[in-house]
Amino acid sequence: MTSKPIGVAVLGLGNVGSEVVRILTENAEDFEARIGAPLEIRGIAVRRVDGDRGVPTELLTDDPAELVGRDDVDIVVEVLGGIDIPRKLVLSALEKGKSVITANKALLAEYTGELADAAEKSRADLYFEAAVAGAIPVVRPLMQSLAGDRVNKVAGIVNGTTNFILSAMDETGADYAETLAEAGRLGYAEADPTADVEGYDAASKAAILASIAFHTRVTAGDVYREGISKITSDDLETAKSLDCTIKLLAICERIVTPKGKERISARVYPALVPLNHPLASVNGAFNAVVVEAEAAGRLMFYGQGAGGAPTASAVLGDLVMAARNKFYGGRGPLESKYAKLEVAPMGDILTRYYVSMQVADKPGVLATVAAEFSKRDVSISTVRQHGSGDGARLVVVTHLAADSALSETVASLEQLDVVVHVASVLRLEGTTV
Ligand code: NAP
């Protein structure tokens, strides 16, 4: 005897939604066997219902709210994008006790508390594996596999567009604007690339990762953010000379302040990464996340961080979990926020800096520049001079120091007569250079 079907509403039929519908339809029997009951798509919400959308026309609707509210819908898959409209739809589904699967990092990073509260109240599931690093299982490992461990750090490359651009700049020597244009032509960058290249997308993912890794609510606004739009081909050349490459990193970690207080840090910025670091070899549009946990040690997750089918894989994994919970009873993990750790300001974080500046080519420049670092107790690791005359460039790499001291040093360097301009400032991650 066939069990009663579980009704699914799919909101969105774009890159991700169309793959979700395709795989669900093609592998319907496998899904039924894995869940114990068949999944039935009750409707698919889109903006344009006309034309051939590759799915039965009777499933299409341009009224997602009506679809979500239908009595025969048990689970809602939200793959629309945007914030305001999906927020209302997801909340309305959760309030009605319907489980929600979403790939929407921007929504979660802004409204995780509100959504988690609604899910908790109605005892519905809220799953979001696809919201961080596409196909790569990282949300479930952090929430479930590592639930018995203490995670100290999560650092990763979580944005494929910026990784594609930085890898291509590294490989070809081309400049940022040229490489961004090429990424657009190849479909790796959107027409408006701001969310990716300015680090907003990675910051949303960092907020989600920090929340689940440290059992604390963290929103996108808590995440320190810098993008890659100021990275030059010179920076990548210098990185090479230091046996490094440049990656846009999302870093979430526990820190202890000088006063012994436990805090967390969540930050996104382009950083020099030594070539022997596991993240240095993650190239092109691939993503990777390194997790450091007390008992487990270092774990690395690597794979396709975006794309219709890879993202659909993560969405469908969540859908199977939510459907099994509906069928057998029970719930997936709730939001864990008991630790309530404060987020430390960026100035308190210990970092290493690489500072590249155009300088006057005359005696005493090095001593004047070095004095600015030592005034703020920032110890210099290496200094190199490149070029001469008008093209003289000084590259300073520091030891660990408070980010605020390093920022003040850079600000004061810009005021010096001997410094024509500070061309580039980057942080260093990983081992010594
Ligand atoms: P997309 O290709 O732009 O598709 C969006 C879909 O939603 C379209 O089918 C669109 O309808 C529909 N839609 C948008 N607003 C709507 C509204 N107000 N009412 C009804 N339908 C509406 O987006 P996507 O790339 O699939 O991404 C979807 C979500 O997944 C986003 O939250 C994104 O951040 C997340 N995500 C995407 C990827 C990826 O690789 N693409 C990876 C991870 C996470 P029309 O087709 O009629 O325009």
What does this structure look like?
The chain is an alpha/beta fold. It has helices spanning 15-26, 28-35, 64-69, 84-95, 105-122, 139-145, 160-172, 176-185, 194-197, 200-214, 233-241, 308-328, 365-375, 403-415, and strands at 6-11, 39-45, 60-61, 75-78, 99-102, 126-127, 151-157, 224-225, 244-256, 262-274, 286-293, 297-304, 350-359, 380-386, 393-398, 401-402, 419-428. A hairpin with a 5-residue loop joins strand 9 (244-256) and strand 10. The strands form two sheets. Strands 7, 8, 9, 10, 11, 12, 13, 14, 15, 16 and 17 form an eleven-stranded mixed sheet that branches. Bound molecules: NADP nicotinamide-adenine-dinucleotide phosphate. NADP nicotinamide-adenine-dinucleotide phosphate (NAP) binds at residues 12-17, 45-48, 62, 64, 79-81, 85, 103-105, 130, 134, 306-307, 311.
Summarize the structure.
With 433 residues, this protein is of the alpha/beta class. The protein contains 14 helices and 17 strands.
Helices, by number, come to: 14
Q: Average pLDDT, to the nearest integer?
A: 95
Structurally, the number of domains stands at 3
CATH architecture identity of the largest domain? 2-Layer Sandwich
Q: Give a count of the beta strands, DSSP E runs of length 2 or more.
A: 17
Give the names of the bound compounds: NADP nicotinamide-adenine-dinucleotide phosphate
The biggest beta sheet, please?
Answer: 11 strands, mixed
Specify the CATH homologous superfamily of the largest domain: Dihydrodipicolinate Reductase, domain 2
Proportion in β-strands? 25-35%
- Intertermini distance: 66 Å
Note poorly predicted spans: none
Rg estimate, integer Å: 24 Å
The helix-and-strand class reads alpha/beta
User: In CATH terms, what is the fold-level topology of the largest domain?
Assistant: Dihydrodipicolinate Reductase, domain 2
CATH class of the largest domain: Alpha Beta
**Proportion of residues in helical segments:** 25-40%
Question: Overall 3D geometry?
Answer: elongated
